[in-house]
Design a protein that fits this description.
The complex is a heterodimer of chains A (about 450) and B (about 800). Chain A has about 450 residues and is of the alpha/beta class. Helix content of chain A is about 35%, strand content about 15%. In chain A, a hairpin with a 2-residue loop joins strand 7 and strand 8. In chain A, helix 6 packs parallel to helix 9, helix 7 runs antiparallel to helix 8 and helix 9 runs parallel beside helix 12. The radius of gyration of chain A is 22 Å and the shape is globular. With about 800 residues, chain B is an alpha+beta fold. Chain B has 30 helices and 21 strands. Chain B has a five-stranded mixed beta sheet, with helices on one face. In chain B, strand 19 and strand 20 form a beta hairpin. The longest helix of chain B is centred in the first third of the chain and has 20 residues. Chain B is flat and about 105 Å long. Classes of the chains: A alpha/beta (about 450), B alpha+beta (about 800). Chains A and B meet through helix 5, strand 8, helix 6, helix 7 and helix 8 of A and helix 6, helix 11, helix 12 and helix 13 of B.
Chain lengths: ~450, ~800
């Protein structure tokens, strides 16, 4: 490409509506770029996709050898994972990882609430039905803290199932524990957005603001003043409030500052690109598959345009009673079926649901492979984790969790293998290793006992 | 008197000369000695409870929390557990009576402590309502906010509601659009065109209804709310699907079988068959064919109502061909800006005994249905400013004085208190900034309004500790006004409340009582039904429950919505008429419309409108036998006596069963081929003593309701088994069926009213109840009982109670001053 054809993104900014977008990164890379420049233009992305209520492990785990070790992923995989067999050279399956935070540890029943809350935080959540929730900072948010001001959105929380408003969802554990994957502080859950249209508007600006750039600039200036004003309001309030009220004001202040930072980063980097993607309709699809695909489209778009590099997707919530009647002809609720007590018919239905869910991963892999970036694809530059905080849903087992780690992590992962770790290896070790690869170098995370070896050769 | 525990002798202190002390000695301790100490004594200390350490009433009174738990277990007859003999009614009453007297004694709850509610941010319902009452516009920006966290059963608990950055962004966006709409009205296309479309689902699937797709109705109803951007004329163009005259087995292809001749035994009117040749038709033939099509199926009335008033009465006749030629059905309406309900329906279909009559047997699709409506407009839109404009611009000049007047009035309403000088000045600076940029005065005010809408003083209900003074204090009149209005209306105080607060009158008892009465009679009090009662009864769970379409083919979205409506109208009746709250359990009446009446087997109700009917002489009556409750406490394919029992214990009696212990062994899988009824399967719960302790409480209640299937219909058989609706409670009492269950519950009416008091107080305060609230709860409960269990008495008693009127200071705040 001729050097002068390189596009300045700023030049695209002030256009209105849906101007055509360029593939984000190719156009940015100077011709004859050095490897380091290419690397800088193709940062690592990470996403966590979550399915609840466990997996039928006999139909998931590859039938490779026993014990600790690693093997090449065979061409034929069991029923559930057979869907990803065509992508086996771009992903790893990990066995034997543990989420000890999900276990009772003396707190009695509540495995679903715990599983949801402990999955990305690797801590044992406090048993509470609402008032004093306490989990931990989730791994995506640890990474996101580095992204504040770098990408427009430090992270993106997406989901396909609106959480339950039921106070005590699981034996004394608040619904918030099962409704959320991401926690920015041990007491601040980040609820996922399930409406595709709302995600779109959040990412690409409300359609209402579309038209006049002069108008838009003025409005932005006014809103900056508004934010300054309310920050002053809140700070003054802080000094006259006590106890728990102050904590609420802290949340408010943190949220407002978050918006301010975002506005500042936009001004600095001018990264917003108008895109050629039709806004999704206002309604939430009733069909799970359609909903998941829409969310994945938006996720890939957000990665592609570098609006964010970190995301969590709560495909379905822990204890979900969702029935997939219209989709795959199973009218009974998911959670109920997973407590099968050995009933072969129920196990079969759960397997079908697991097979149905994993199609969302296949779709994501497809889409990410199709995005060319620099010297590879978006998938090459990403780390995508698909799994659940429970392995055997019938017995609420928090060990030997089902984990797929897809992508090459910008050259830091060696896919194509099934790795089994010794059975008390914390999943948090994986998170430490992933954070390393994102440029955060924590000494530990949650209940980690070190890094996870064997991930790259 | 000595009592002797197994293996231990306890020395006695002299009896304390207090009434409750004496009571403890004579009526309580002997019972404990005889029936409890075996496990809850020094030797075993089962579950960490040891009654031997209380030689007298004084020592016992030190541990009110323990006795609260004891009271629960005794009054629910959970203790002593079988095989030990149960307490006699007299002994149980003695124990609970003594415990109650403990709680009500002055100083019983420790030093007076009205508790301290944490600053509560407005939840979604409150946000929408507040916008409506503040600015007079009915858009619901909060419908896009993430769901509110819930605690203690409600979504308005201060401590539990969090504020994430995503929510803050949504507040900003909402403030932007709300302020724009309030000042300028909603944007709309100047050139009229199709502004919207309401589409109904065409099949009953198991998915949840969401977004702009309207619920499925076998009877072909279209019922939805559309938000009109501006006052104007609009055209509603309905696509009425008519698939009549399409019967199975008839070949409709051109040149097909002659009329009726080869059709397999189905008599039907004309069709397209019958012409063997392909010669073009003459005018006459066309007319004749048209007439034949029109006569092919009888005329059916089709009505359209907007906001409950009829705007169109039409007739649908003929078969599909005729309808196709006829074109869409159009209604012309004139409406104001805002939400309006559009309902299109076939009145006769309300009275179908089986709604499947409207389904075409050939393909299962509906014969007649309002499939969608396209809304075209606006025609001749009103050029006037929106009504919200006048509320904001209280003066007409564009000078500094007017700006101040406007801003102060917005602050007063938005912050729910008189504004301070510093904050007013800051907002006025904003107004000036905007005008300096060349924008209009109106735009300046709009920006100030946007700032108010994202201020913490708007988003949170803030209560300020006084700087000096005692550790507990009365909340200010303004704070009291907000507490009242958000309790009874889930919205901001109105001008009358604010004026009374200005005059410091609101805290005076007669004024307060009069205001509570006024507020309960205001239309906004419907929130107590739509918001409070819906959460109390867990009705939102109905959104996620859908009876299996194969097992319950006549239950569609429309019927489920009717079931929900029934319960809301029923509870609303008890609330609005200020009747005895126990009518919720025993009221022998309900509200049904034609479809629901037929579902229940109630005669004499026709049409889609709801009517109050008597249930005397039937098995139904009260909330427990309403289809909404019966459905939300079931699985998609079968009933669950356990869930139903738990629901009653939790929501009606305030005695939720403890969670299952860890490592619960699975119920033994039934042998393949063996079929047993739901009830028989659950008997396994009682065979295992570890399970029985709790399940003998829950299961019998559910058994009593087994005559009602998983969608609330009445049945005498569960599959091929006869329904056995008898139940035996832990204390040995037996009952049969819903009527028997109702009597049992009424015998525990104090548990019901106490639970209702506690739930209402939690909702009113916006925090969970603490032991220090015990005395207040007892006091409120007594006032409720003394006034015929009426809602107005409860609301007044709550408004006058200490926890509602006062607040505990945060000592740490002022410690360093």
């Amino acid at each position: 490409m001729h050097p002068d054809n390189r596009v300045s993104r700023r030049s695209l900014l002030r256009g209105a509506g849906t101007a055509l977008a360029l593939p984000f990164l190719d156009a940015m890379i100077p011709p004859f770029a050095r490897a380091a420049e290419v690397k800088a233009a193709t940062p690592a992305r990470v996403a966590f996709l979550y399915v609840p209520n466990g997996i039928v492990m006999e139909e998931w785990t590859p039938k490779t050898g026993e014990g600790v070790g690693e093997w090449a992923l065979p061409e034929t995989l069991p029923r559930i994972t057979s869907a990803i067999a065509p992508y086996r050279s771009e992903l790893m399956m990990l066995s034997g990882l543990d989420c000890n935070g999900g276990r009772a540890l003396g707190d009695g029943p509540g495995d679903h609430g715990r599983a949801g809350a402990a999955y990305l935080t690797a801590t044992h959540p406090k048993k509470s039905a609402g008032k004093d929730l306490h989990a931990g900072v989730s791994v995506d948010q640890v990474a996101a803290k580095k992204m504040s001001g770098v990408t427009r959105f430090a992270s993106l929380e997406l989901g396909c199932e609106e959480g339950v408003q039921g106070g005590n969802c699981d034996n004394g554990y608040s619904c918030t524990y099962s409704n959320t994957l991401a926690w920015s502080t041990p007491t601040t859950p980040l609820p996922p957005e399930v409406r595709p249209r709302a995600v779109f508007e959040r990412l690409f600006g409300s359609l209402e603001l579309g038209a006049d750039p002069v108008r838009r600039r003025l409005q932005e200036m006014y809103e900056k003043s508004i934010l300054d004003g309310v920050l002053e309001d809140a700070r003054r309030l802080q000094t006259s409030l006590g106890g728990a009220d102050k904590v609420k004001m802290d949340e408010y202040l943190a949220s407002v500052r978050d918006i301010e930072t975002r506005i500042q980063s936009v001004e600095r980097n001018a990264k917003s690109l108008p895109i050629n993607y039709a806004a999704p309709s206002a309604s939430v699809p009733a069909d799970f598959g359609e909903h998941a695909r829409l969310m994945t489209d938006l996720l890939v778009l957000a990665f592609q345009t570098d609006l964010t590099r970190i995301s969590t997707v709560l495909l379905s919530i822990e204890q979900s009673p969702r029935a997939y009647g219209a989709e795959i002809g199973i009218p009974e609720g998911h959670h109920g079926l997973t407590h099968h007590s050995g009933d072969k018919e129920k196990i079969e239905k759960v397997t079908q649901i697991n097979c149905y869910h994993i199609k969302s991963l296949v779709y994501a892999l497809d889409k990410m492979k199709a995005v060319k970036e620099g010297d590879g694809t978006l998938l090459d530059h990403s780390m995508i984790v698909y799994g659940s905080g429970i392995s055997d849903g019938n017995r609420h087992d928090h060990g030997n969790l089902p984990v797929i780690l897809a992508g090459r992590g910008n050259g830091t992962l060696t896919p194509g293998r099934h790795i089994r770790y010794s059975s008390d290896t914390p999943m948090a070790n994986l998170f430490v290793s992933m954070l390393d690869r994102m440029g955060v170098e924590p000494e530990f995370f949650g209940d980690s006992k070190g890094k996870l070896d064997r991930l790259s050769i | 008197m000595r009592f002797v525990a197994i293996g231990h002798a306890i020395a006695l202190c002299p009896a304390i000369a207090q009434t409750d002390g004496h009571r403890f000695e004579t009526s309580v301790r002997p019972v404990l000695a005889k029936q409890c100490i075996q496990c809850h004594g020094d030797k075993l200390q089962t579950a960490g409870v040891n009654f031997s350490v209380f030689p007298d009433s004084k020592s016992a009174a030190q541990n009110p929390e323990l006795w609260r738990k004891v009271r629960e277990k005794v009054s629910n007859r959970m203790m002593p557990p079988p095989p030990l003999p149960p307490l006699s009614a007299a002994d149980a009453a003695a124990i609970t009576g003594w415990i109650d007297s403990l709680a009500a004694a002055p100083g019983a709850s420790g030093p007076p402590d009205p508790g301290r509610v944490t600053a509560r941010r407005l939840n979604r319902v409150e946000f929408n309502n507040t916008i409506r009452d503040f600015l007079g516009i009915t858009i619901h920006p909060a419908d896009d906010f993430p769901i509110d966290n819930q605690g203690y059963g409600f979504d308005n608990i201060g401590d539990v509601l969090t504020l994430s950055p995503m929510l803050m962004e949504k507040y900003m966006a909402a403030a932007r659009s709300v302020s724009r709409i309030a000042v300028y009205g909603e944007p709309y296309e100047k050139k009229s065109g199709i502004v919207g479309k309401l589409l109904t689902k065409s099949v009953q699937d198991d998915g949840q209804v969401s977004g702009t797709t309207l619920p499925f109705s076998m009877r072909g109803t279209l019922d939805g709310v559309y938000h009109f951007p501006v006052e104007a004329d609009y055209l509603l163009q309905f696509r009425v699907t008519n698939r009549r005259g399409v019967e199975p087995g008839v070949d409709l292809s051109p040149g097909g079988a002659p009329n009726g001749a080869d059709a397999p035994g189905r008599g039907r009117g004309g069709g397209r068959g019958g012409r063997g040749s392909r010669a073009p038709m003459t005018e006459e033939e066309k007319q004749a064919r048209h007439e034949a099509d029109r006569k092919a199926a009888p005329p059916v009335e089709f009505d359209v109502d907007v906001d409950g008033r009829q705007v169109l009465k039409d007739t649908v006749e003929g078969n599909e061909a005729y309808a196709y030629d006829r074109g869409p059905t159009v209604a012309k309406i004139h409406v104001t800006a805002g939400d309006h309900e559009i309902r299109a329906y076939f009145p006769a279909h309300a009275d179908m005994d089986d709604p499947r009559t409207n389904l075409n047997p050939r393909d299962g699709r509906r014969r007649l249905a309002a499939e969608f409506v396209e809304i075209t407009g606006p025609f001749d839109p009103s050029a006037q400013r929106p009504p919200s404009y006048k509320r904001i611009f209280v003066c007409g000049t564009h000078d500094a004085a007017c700006a101040r007047k406007i801003v102060e009035s917005l602050e007063r309403r938005g912050y729910r208190r008189p504004p301070g000088e510093a904050e007013t000045r800051r907002l006025l600076k904003l107004v000036a900034l905007v005008q300096k940029q060349g924008d209009s005065f109106d735009e300046g005010i709009r920006i100030a309004l946007q700032a108010i809408l994202v201020s913490p003083e708007f988003l949170f209900r803030i209560e300020r500790d006084p700087v000096s003074g005692a550790g507990i204090y009365r909340v200010s009149n303004y704070e009291l006004a907000s507490r009242l209005s958000y309790f009874l209306w889930s919205s901001m105080p109105d001008e009358e409340l604010m004026k009374l607060a200005d005059q410091h009158q609101l805290s005076r008892q007669p004024v307060l009582e009069a205001q509570v009465k006024r507020m309960l009679q205001d239309a906004k009090a419907s929130n107590l039904v739509d918001d409070f009662a819906t959460q109390w009864l867990d009705l939102r769970a109905l959104d996620r429950k859908k009876p299996d379409a194969a097992k319950f083919p006549t239950v569609d979205d429309e019927l489920l919505a009717d079931m929900r409506r029934e319960t809301l109208l029923f509870v609303g009746d008890v609330f609005r008429n200020d009747s005895d709250l126990l009518d919720v359990i025993k009221g022998k009446f309900t509200y049904v419309n034609g479809p629901l009446a037929r579902y229940y087997g109630i005669a004499g109700v026709n049409g889609f409108d709801f009517k109050r009917v008597s249930l005397e002489g039937t098995d139904r009556g009260g909330i427990l036998t309403q289809a909404s409750i019966l459905t939300l406490t079931s699985y998609a394919t079968r009933t669950s006596p356990v869930i139903r029992g738990k629901w009653v214990l939790e929501n009606m009696l305030g005695a939720p069963p403890p969670p299952p212990p860890p490592d619960v062994p699975a119920l033994e899988a039934t042998r393949p081929g063996a079929e047993i009824s739901v009830r028989a399967r659950l008997e396994q719960h009682r065979a295992n003593p570890a399970c029985a302790v709790c399940h003998r409480q829950m299961d019998p209640i559910g058994f009593g309701l087994e005559n009602f299937d998983a969608a609330g219909g009445f049945r005498t058989k569960d599959g091929k088994f006869d329904v056995d609706s008898s139940g035996t409670l832990p204390d040995g009492r037996t009952f049969t069926g819903a009527n028997g269950l109702r009597d049992i519950l009424l015998s525990q009416s104090t548990a019901f009213t106490r639970n209702f008091t506690e739930k209402t107080l939690t909702f009113a305060l916006g925090r969970g109840l603490e032991p220090s609230d015990r005395a207040a709860v007892e006091q409120i409960n007594r006032k409720l009982a003394a006034n015929g269990n009426r809602l107005s008495a409860l609301a007044t008693a709550i408004a006058e109670s200490e926890p509602f009127q006062m607040r505990r200071k945060d000592e740490s705040l002022h410690a360093s001053r």
